Amino acid sequence: MTTAKSIRKTVSAVLARTTVVDIHTHLFDSALGPLLLWGIDELLTYHYLVAECFRARPDMEYPAFFTMSKSRQADLIWSELFCKRSPISEACRGVLTVLQALGLDPNEASLAAYRRYFAGQTGRGYVDKVFKLAGISRVYMTNDPLNPEERTAWEKGFKRDPRFLGVLRLDSALMAWPKGAETLKGIGYDVDSSLSGQTLAEVRRYLDDWCRRLDARYMAISLPPSFRYPAATHSLTNLMIKAVFPVARERGIPVAMMIGVKKLVNPALGDAGDSVGKADIATLEQIAGDFPDNRFLATYLSRENMHELCVAARKFKNITPFGCWWFLNNPSLIREITAMRLELLGLSFIPQHSDARVLDQLIYKWIHSRAIIGDVLADKYEDLIRAGRRVTEADITRDIRMLFDGARLQPN
Ligand code: FIX
Ligand code: ZN
User: Kind and range of the H or E element at 289?
Assistant: First the structure.
């Protein structure tokens, strides 16, 4: 039996030995070659750190940085954020955690030693090492068939690594309609800018074709704060309800809606240029209520929306909140969000995803998150023990599996 005193240690031990399913990443099966990013130069030129580098160097013009080679950019970021000042931010600290976990000294003045280490790693072998250090069993990718480089690789075919699961990402096809229509037409789908029955049928064919090719376990889209349903005249809303939701229902897979991104508020920053906006929770509630046979994974980018999402999930059992996304993936907010979810939803949510863009990030994103989520979980078990409830290690193992095994993503 665990006691209030021993519970923290037990939770941390169970979490450490439980491998997790990472339900949203931008990683790729190592068979997709250069699409899978890893190593110190990729770690340091992660768009989170690029944005922070411009804060350290407001004098630097955007083109002066973006015309540098990747290794020069990495050298500059290391110098500005890790040498000239303490690497206090979560994104900086993450790099230190990765270096330490790999047995490297996080105090180097230059990147030479790190570059020598990574030069000695091989793609597949390094995937094994990172998955082991991060305690990961499987990751879900973000696959975009409208990315020509990625489409070619899928059409050519390759032997898949079962640890990398497919996800059909919808943004490039649907977000800027009718721009997406031209792209879809270009790859053989007979669509036009209208949302005629023919066009919607062809969009559904595209979704079905690529869900099959990817063996997609869900379809995902990031949505602006302005996304609304119902919205009879909005192309995006109509494409979601008349194409995406029906195909997801037929295939028995969820739709992941990631809501609250204001794209490119500063275009000069590229991937680092997106911001956050508070979205309308009533839209999700209306969708969940009007499409009871669809399952929705949902996450928001605004802190305020995360509490509203917990309440919406209490009202609609086909909503599964997931992750502390992007600007919410910081210790202080992971703690707050996890506590409110446990208090309002029990164990019926997916606590975290890494959003890793660089393979090595899995190590820090999961070491950091396990520590915080474990701490909050221990608080809740302590409360149970104080209320006279017996809590065993088997209970904790069962509960943690429920939170992290990805079961809520299994097809119907
Ligand atoms: O839409 C998304 O999947 C976002 O996670 C990304 O676009 C974003 O750039 C990111 O990587 C955040 O962590
Ligand atoms: Zn993402």
Answer: helix 281-290
